[in-house]
UniProtKB/TrEMBL annotation:
GO molecular function: fatty acyl-CoA hydrolase activity
Annotated family: Belongs to the 4-hydroxybenzoyl-CoA thioesterase family.
Native source species: Aureliella helgolandensis
Top-rank taxon, per record: Bacteria
Enzyme Commission code(s) on record: 3.1.2.-
Signal peptide span: none
Sorted UniProt keywords: Hydrolase
Gene: ybgC_1
Xref: InterPro entries: 4-hydroxybenzoyl-CoA_TE, HotDog_dom_sf, YbgC/YbaW
Top EC category: hydrolase
Protein name: Acyl-CoA thioester hydrolase YbgC
SUPFAM superfamilies the UniProt entry points to: Thioesterase/thiol ester dehydrase-isomerase (SSF54637)
Amino acid sequence: MLSEHSTELRVRYDECDPMGLVHHSNYLRYMEIARTELFRASGGNYRDLEASGLFVVVVRIECNYRQPAKYDDLLTIHVQIDRVTEAKIEQSYRVERDGLSLLTAKITLAVINSAGRPQRIPDSLR
């Protein structure tokens, strides 16, 4: 599994608030996309993982908003795996525009089964 990956996304009009800035909630979507692309680039597939009865859930988010993004900005979302234990995955994120840091974040993930019970992190996510 790769330990880091970068994904580029262009800000769409509907992701902006009335001031023309990306609404803060959309950064969570951007990080979800980057996390999925990291898994895909590593040869994984969330659809297959979920078909096996396992689901990746966010259990903690810490975001530091530094600068706003605007409509049509090309953003680069960097994701890095910091630590994997038996029960959780800790990741760091950085959202940039032209090398300028707009947001940093830390997200902790866990894996649950279809009954909502915590599971060990499978090898495919390590």
